[in-house]
Amino acid sequence: MSKATEYVDTLPENIGWQPDSWQSRQAQQQATYPDAAALQATLAELSSLPPLVTSWEILSLKKQIAEAQAGNRFFLQGGDCAESFAECNSEVITNRLKVLLQMSLALTHGLQKPVVRVGRFAGQYAKPRSSDVETRAGLTLPSYRGDLVNSVEFTPEARQPDPRRLIQGHACSSMTMNFVRALVDGGFADLHHPEYWNLSWVEHSPLADEFQRLADSLGRAVNFMETISGRRAGSLKRVDFYTSHEALHLHYEQALTRTVPRQQGWFNLTTHFPWIGMRTADVDGAHVEYFRGIRNPIGIKVGPGADATHLRRLLETLNPESEAGRMVLIHRMGASHIETTLPPLIRAAQDSDSPVLWVCDPMHGNTETTTSGIKTRRFRNIMSEMEMAIELHHQHGSQLGGAHLELTGEDVTECTGGARNLGEADLKRAYKSIVDPRLNYEQALELAMLIVSKFEKLD
Ligand code: PEP
Ligand code: CO
Fold first, then answer.
1. How far apart are CA 294 and CA 319, in angstroms?
2. Residues 359-373: pLDDT tens digits?
3. Whose CA is nearest to atom 10 of ligand 1?
4. Closest CA to 42 of 173, 149, 157, 122
5. How far apart, in whole angstroms, are the C-alpha atoms of residue 379 and residue 79?
6. What DSSP string runs through 194-252?
7. Fewer CB atoms inside 10 Å of the end CB: C or N, the chain?
């Protein structure tokens, strides 16, 4: 392929773009606030608060994504479907970081390439919904749209969108970010000590031995490198972690869209890696207009309804300069659709000038509801979509470069199957998600190992 994969800092043309130019387009999935003046006052306050990330971190992630586009890194993005303010606490944050670290260790070891680690955290507080309202026992209220907008309890007060939540969302994101940075800088992610990342509830896991062997083998490799170089490998003490969220609430995103000294252009400083959800990916819509002008690397969810023309227009609009490191396409087809829906999109991306990183989200196309009304996903279908994605890219001269997962470090039972073969009856035991069902620690680690073994089997 002749596409540029080397990262070169380029400025998008941004013709006619302003941080608020999205407001002249149709914006799907936005909250309706009862008091417009209160919203404006809060947005003014938000605009004066410090940003959550920096432009140089954003550009260093872009460089890593360019390396992943060239096949030299694997991209791992994971975390809650929806973070909640109530779970902005040390245990939840640490456990989630532990799973992501363990998965990235399994992937680095198995794929023999560095992993780009991106959390779905420090801002994943806004959710798209299939309906604007929800009805229970004859009472109709606004749908829950994430903690950034309203509260999940089913009362008229809780479901009323409240702009003060934007300030709380910014605060919780910043507390999460601060704690993650402190953990990483303090040696929590030190490759010499993978035992720091063990979660107590998995000591008896069916996967514990396999993971231990892997961690031991990596420990030996680290020692070997240090022995022959005669130096302690300092860079292994700290790993990079980036943040991401669905940039759905455009007023919130706009308030944190800034210019910075010694850089050209505009950055979204709420997060390193914002993405556009499937329901808001209309090329002529407000979200695509907003994303067009920011310099961050960006993700777009592509579902089974997306065709080659849609993809081509998205790439032309969002990456007119064909910049490396800019575009991440996250496909979420469902295990039963991927074989027919993915190949035309792979070809469309190959025909475009834009380099892309292909990432598989095997969660959102495989959601189902049990006969007792619980939203779940079968591990078998998740795994099967992931394996087919790896295979299909390979067959079509492309490469799957990453995984996008909903997971948690808590001992939850939200998806069925996996090493412990959770059944439907187990779902009642520890179902905590407020929106979509997540992989628990064991299922997440098992998936990382299965990704490695699928890549090993490719010819
Ligand atoms: C999500 O990632 O939580 C989500 C809503 O995904 P999608 O836009 O792919 O449906
Ligand atoms: Co979700």
1. 11
2. 999 999 999 999 999
3. 278
4. 149
5. 17
6. GGGG--GGGTT-TTHHHHHHHHHHHHHHHHHHHHHHTS--GGGG----EEEEE---HHH
7. C
Neighbours of ion ligand 2 (CB under 5 A): 81, 436
- Site to substitute for ligand 1 among 84, 248, 330, 332, most atoms within 8 A of C-beta: 332
**Average model confidence (pLDDT) across the chain:** 92
pLDDT at 303: 98
- Residue 230 is predicted with a pLDDT of 66
CA distance 352 to 357: 13
Helices 338-351, 379-395: crossing angle, 10 deg rounding: 40
E strands in 103-142: 115-120, 133-136, 139-142
**Residue 1: per-residue pLDDT:** 46
DSSP 138: T
pLDDT in tens, 34-92: 999 999 999 999 999 999 999 999 999 999 999 999 999 999 999 999 999 999 999 99
Residues near ligand 1 (Cβ within 6 A): 81, 128, 246, 277-279, 301, 332, 364, 436
Residue 329: the pLDDT is 99
Count H helices and E strands in the chain, helices first. 12, 14
Pairing mode, strands 74-79 and 115-120:
parallel
In terms of DSSP bridges, do strands 400-406 and 356-360 run parallel, antiparallel, or are they unpaired?
A: parallel
Q: Identify the structural domains of the chain with CATH numbers, from first to last.
A: 21-458 (3.20.20.70)
Ligand 1 atom nearest residue 404's Cα: 2
Q: Compute how many other C-beta atoms are within 10 angstroms of the C-beta atom of residue 126.
A: 27
Residue nearest to atom 3 of ligand 1 (CA): 81
The answer to whether residues 148 and 249 touch, using CB atoms and an 8 Å cutoff, is yes
* Dist. CA 364 → ligand 1 center (Å): 6
What are the backbone angles phi and psi of residue 207, rounded to the nearest 5°?
-95, -5
Query: In the chain, which residues have pLDDT < 70?
Result: 1-2, 4, 11-13, 191-192, 194-206, 218-219, 221-226, 228-239
> pTM (2 decimals)?
0.94
- How many angstroms separate the Cα of 208 from the Cα of each of 163, 193, 198, 200, 328? 45, 16, 10, 11, 33
Short-list 273, 74, 41, CA closest to 167: 41
Tokens of 32: 């309706």
Using CA atoms, how far residue 229 sits from 190, 193, 222, 234, 305, in Å, is: 19, 20, 11, 12, 53
28, 279, 302, 328: residue to mutate for ligand 1 pocket, most atoms within 8 A of CB: 279
